[in-house]
What does this fold into?
Amino acid sequence: MLLQPDTEENRELTANVQPPEWVNPQPVGRYNLVVIGGGTAGLVCAAGAAGLGAKVALIERRLLGGDCLNVGCVPSKGVIRASRAIFDARSSGEFGVRGLAGAHADFPAAMERMRRLRAGLSGHDSARRFSQELGVDVYLGEGTFTGPDTVAVAGRKLLFAKGGICTGARAAAPPIPGLAEAGYLTNETVFSLTSLPSRLAVIGAGPIGCELAQAFARFGSRVTIIERGEQILGREDRDAAAVLQAAFLREGITLELGVKIAGVESRGADKLLRLERDGMPFEVAADCILLGVGRGPNLEGLGLEAAGIAFDKDGVKVSDTLRTTNPRVYAAGDICSAYKFTHVADAQARILIANALFKGRQKNSALTVPWCTYTDPEIAHVGMYEQDAAAQGLEVATLTVPFSDVDRAVLDGETEGFARVHLKKGTDRILGATIVARHAGEMINELSLAIGSGLGISAIGRTIHPYPTQGEAIKKLADAYNRSRLTPLIKRLLAAWLSWQRN
It folds into this structure.
């Protein structure tokens, strides 16, 4: 079993995405496209190319579906949803619900639900679906380049006209003395838990660390987040991070920010993290340690040198069209992208198909990339931050609408957070936007569409939004922009015109 525990749900999942009885096909002739890696980017490449008539081979050495299905987006959001349900039950008194303030979280049941739903979703990424329904030759095993246009897998040699590297990335472990000996969890192992750790130390306050820290705290773990930076979610808008930080503190999460980890040691059943802040040492004890400190590329075993493909510690090196240093081979997803998100892997896979198979010139730099951290409240962002605009010499006008000014948010009891846009000063052009709200990820798309389509905030202002919705916050940003255009001179001119009309 590649996934633990050994349960009915995980056996169903394995039967779909790494069937033990699978027999690899016998390659015949040259493939239009050979894709190494069966995560999001690889699956989209294979399905899309085959759907357009290409002869396609897909190679995966572990689990089809990659991190997203097996140890990433899908299980994490299942766990987060369960933790939100228990939080809402305990917080329902303000809505007139009585008797749930002490509601009990059944962690094993929540994990069983996640495994069951994950197994149900796995059929979409299954080897049988890709082989029988989509016409892709699926090879299970390690794919290794043996030349500029050949790949070996499980004793078979595949010839290709074009190749795609979509092997993704994995959780990185920092070189902390004693960490390996003490043991730790990553996103690849945390979803195998069947019992709730009483004390959880989370190293790293990035998206993965923050999402799972809050989820486990809501289940009942005593959670400590350890971060060397001075704020959680260090790349986000400082005001946005402050809203989430306040929520964490209210929910009993301990934040150790601006600290250095000197080492980790086991003492009995405890894992002791030796920390230092401003030269003063102290310790944090935990039952489990969860790492959330970034990702490292899956380069091992690819034989990139044999294919003349350049790479470094960050992954495979590609041009703006996603072509590697081997003109026959392209790459997409976490193996080559600075944005390690499933939706970016999907978008890059579409670029790969167009450019590799149809001589397109689509550019990775043309993508408008939104992202969201699925905490509560969520933090979603697209485009530039103020410092990004300043680095490009652009003057910015920033508009902010707090959700306390949005009627639906008041009625929902979800007034925490804000919607914010950065406009190019003197214009309605949207340079970037941040939303902090319980459903921020659902709301950022309107702003992403506007940026990607070259629509200004005025276009959003002319769009009728249903009332009452929390998405009305975006309309209020447009209204704020329109009010900013009403200068004293324009007001005087309008007043004079209206006065003349009364005569």
About this structure: The mean pLDDT is 96. The CA atoms of residues 99 and 108 lie 23 Å apart. The radius of gyration is 25 Å. The first helix runs from residue 8 to 17.
